[in-house]
Design brief:
The complex is a heterodimer. By secondary structure, chain A is of the alpha/beta class. In chain A, 27% of the residues lie in helices and 19% in strands. Among the domains of chain A are: 2-23 and 114-281, Rossmann fold (3-Layer(aba) Sandwich), CATH 3.40.50; 375-438, no CATH class. Chain B has a two-stranded antiparallel sheet. Chain B has a two-stranded antiparallel sheet with strand order 2-3. In chain B, strands 5-8 form a two-stranded antiparallel ribbon. Classes of the chains: A alpha/beta, B alpha+beta.
Chain lengths: 443, 275
């Protein structure tokens, strides 16, 4: 086992606040009576084409939405039941999506049944990719369809596959629990990915503060005779970001505007690899998701396995209700997640956590003027100048901002986190990026 | 004593220098002689807004004198200025803009249903990226004032209720606000328009009524009461065909949500508005 030290030259060290849920084993949330399954559960492109109509009977794991374009992903029914209606819902990231409302009823095909493992070892890379696409696997944080990510162009070669077990956002511990409880399955998932990508090296990168997860994965890898190196990384934020991970482990910098594959690396989140295992070894589509429910306003915070499409009201009920009224409800981590306003918002494939935060936890305060203190510049893990970019965008100079590195912004939130004037820097940069991409990246 | 002498000497030198330069400046005539020939660059608005495509007013003026640019390109300069320009340059103006932009929404804080409280960046596009805005109506004016920021003529005003209105006397259709508005609530109407339908919602009438007390419910009362007024209800929203010049007052009185409003006057504050 090789041990590496990461360098905290950039980024931030937020309070990790994981003690609320760290010791809570994953438990299965009760199946929702009414689930609302959005058809847009991938990052770009159109929603999946709906294959059902109101009144149709669906079975657990049956396909209900077929990917509409090459960048799409299939959507499956998380529960058996009857389609009640089709309606539009708000997604946590601010988009709108058509959704299928399913009322629970009938017999489960998978829940409580023993499943035989599928002998995937004899399949070709192309077949494995096909299975992953069929089962609707997307990145469990990024929502990029996994089969697209693992389709390597002919002229490229993967040098390094990194299994990203960092989970650097505060509050979130679901992946940590997954590593402790499902280590052999995760290692098998990594073996499937390794077969598809055929990398020269495989690295499992674990946060150095998680010795237990490190040991569990190490033992599982040894038992499976899986030739992966295990590396430890620091617990700063955003260590778990793809580009930071590559730089910490290899010293290579992904070129500006480029992707991880440009330096021959593929990085996958532990949750995604677990989903790959379930898709390929158990032939189970993505209908469940491990996530953390935390925050000061919820009575029993914990780590849950939840059906996709479960409305948040069911999660609140599952976790004992509110201790006090939450001031803000955030889907995802506190750094990169987004605040939502509606408790009927459903869980999607890339929901990593739901936080019910009290006013003490969010510390609302007024925005003041920029003090020119430079803390955002110091904190930016991409080496950008957020305050300057923000000003350029405010004055409409999108092209100039784009040229000064706006396209490399990962929207990690470090700059806004450290800003003493509480300027919404990330929001500004996000708008600037959207507008300049709309205008073709220039002018 | 020597110190005092130094001070006096310095004062004397500076006074002398000041006098010399002052006389010099006074003696040589300034570039803009009153009564002399006026150059095109001198009567341009001087906003340096860049709508004409030139870096600023002086370079646009030079281009005008060389005969390369069209005076109609200057959006902030009004009709009067363009006529003056035509006189100086000795040409006919081929290009005038008789349209303006108006905000087709009067749903302020008091009138519309809200989905959530927003405290982020004061930019409409930023708000639009979050669930399409904090108002339940997704066609509405988001009220963050991105258009005010980009308007070179300060033609757009906002009242305390969060309702926006464009002053027809100032708007010259430079189109900058159209480019930053994410909901399309800014639309073009003729400058001479007496009334406009201050609603942008193509939701069904009942939905619009649920979201907003001043939204067009497509009841067609305007079509019936002012048949000559050019009212056309299309896609659940009344629009005015301004080629028809008939009476529109009947429709204004008949409109139940009172969303046919005067173009020339700023909005009256809603009756429930915070003061």
């Amino acid at each position: 086992m090789s041990v590496r030290q990461s360098f905290s030259r950039v980024g931030i060290l937020p309070r990790d606040l994981k003690d609320l849920t760290r010791g809570q084993a994953l438990w299965n949330a009760s199946v929702p009576v009414v689930s609302v399954v959005p058809l847009l559960q991938h990052r770009e492109g159109d929603p999946a084409a709906c294959l059902v109509a109101p009144g149709d009977v669906v079975r657990e794991g049956m396909i209900i939405g077929r990917a509409a374009g090459p960048e799409g992903a299939h959507v499956h029914s998380p529960v058996p039941g009857t389609v009640r209606e089709l309606r539009e819902v708000f997604l946590p990231d601010g988009r709108r999506s058509p959704a299928v409302v399913i009322e629970l009823g009938g017999e489960f095909d998978r829940l409580g049944k023993s499943v035989r493992k599928y002998p995937w070892e004899n399949h070709s890379q192309k077949d494995l990719l096909g299975i992953i696409a069929d089962k609707g696997v997307v990145g469990m944080e990024s929502a990029v369809p996994t089969h697209l990510k693992y389709t390597i162009p002919k002229n490229r070669r993967v040098d390094l596959f990194i299994l990203n077990c960092s989970e650097c956002e505060p509050y979130l511990t679901a992946n940590h629990r997954l590593m402790l409880e499902k280590a052999p399955q995760i290692v098998e998932g990594a073996r499937i990915v390794a077969k598809i990508l055929d990398p020269r090296r495989i690295l499992i990168a674990v946060d150095k503060s998680r010795k237990d997860a490190l040991d569990a994965l190490g033992q599982a890898a040894k038992a499976a005779e899986f030739g992966a190196e295990i590396a430890t990384v620091g617990s700063w934020f955003p260590q778990g970001d793809e580009k930071q991970m590559i730089r910490t482990l290899t010293g290579l910098e992904v070129p500006s505007g480029g992707e991880a594959l440009d330096v021959g690396a593929v990085v996958s989140n532990v949750g995604t690899v677990f989903a790959v295992y379930e898709a390929v070894a158990l032939l189970k589509p993505v209908i469940e998701k491990a996530l953390t429910v935390a925050g000061g306003a919820i009575r029993n915070p914990g780590n849950l396995k939840v059906r996709i499409g479960t409305p948040l009201t069911d999660l609140v009920e599952e976790c004992g209700g509110f201790v006090e009224m939450p001031e803000k409800i955030v889907i995802g981590g506190p750094m990169t997640g987004s605040a939502i306003f509606d408790l009927s918002t459903p869980v999607t494939k890339n929901t990593t956590g739901v936080l019910f935060l009290t006013s003490r936890e969010i510390r609302n305060s007024r925005r003041t003027n920029c003090l020119r203190c430079g803390r955002c510049v110091e904190a930016c893990p991409m080496g950008l100048d957020p305050t300057n970019l923000f000003k350029l965008i405010d004055h409409g100079a999108y092209g100039e901002a784009f040229g000064q590195g706006l396209k490399d912004c990962r929207e990690c939130g470090c700059c806004a986190y450290v800003c003493p004037a509480r300027i919404p820097l990330v929001q500004g940069l996000r708008v600037g990026k959207a507008v300049s991409l709309e205008r073709g990246g220039a002018a | 004593m020597a110190v005092l002498l130094n001070i006096v000497l310095a004062q004397a030198t500076l006074t002398l220098l000041g006098a010399v330069f002052g006389f010099g400046l006074g003696f040589f005539p300034s570039r803009r002689k009153p009564g002399g020939s006026v150059r095109a660059g001198d009567i341009l608005p001087g906003l340096d807004c860049g709508v004409c495509g030139y870096p600023g007013c002086s370079s646009f003026g030079e281009a005008l004198e060389r005969g390369e640019a069209d005076p109609g390109l200057c959006a902030p300069g009004g009709k009067k200025m363009k006529n003056e320009l035509a006189k100086i340059l000795g040409i006919e103006i081929s290009y005038t803009r008789e349209e303006m932009v108006q905000v087709h929404c009067r749903g302020g804080d008091a009138e519309t249903k809200r989905l959530f409280h927003y405290s982020g960046l004061d930019d409409c596009r930023a708000l639009h990226m979050l669930f399409g805005g904090s108002k339940a109506c997704r066609f509405s004016c988001l009220g963050q004032g991105s258009c005010i920021k980009v308007c070179p003529r300060e033609a757009i005003v906002r009242d305390r209720n969060g309702v926006f209105w464009v002053d027809p006397g100032r708007c010259d259709l430079c189109g900058r606000c159209l480019a930053v508005c994410p909901t399309g609530v800014l639309r073009r109407i003729p400058k001479t328009a007496d009334y406009f339908v201050a609603c942008n919602s193509t939701d069904r009438g009942q939905t619009t009524a649920d979201y907003c007390s001043v939204g067009c419910t497509a009841c067609r009362a305007c079509e019936k009461r002012s048949p000559e007024g050019g009212f056309e209800v299309d896609d659940h929203l009344a629009r005015i065909n301004y080629r028809r010049r008939g009476d529109r007052n009947g429709a204004v009185l008949a409109c139940d949500p009172k969303c046919i409003v005067s173009n020339g006057a700023p909005p009256a504050m809603g009756k429930n508005a915070k003061t």
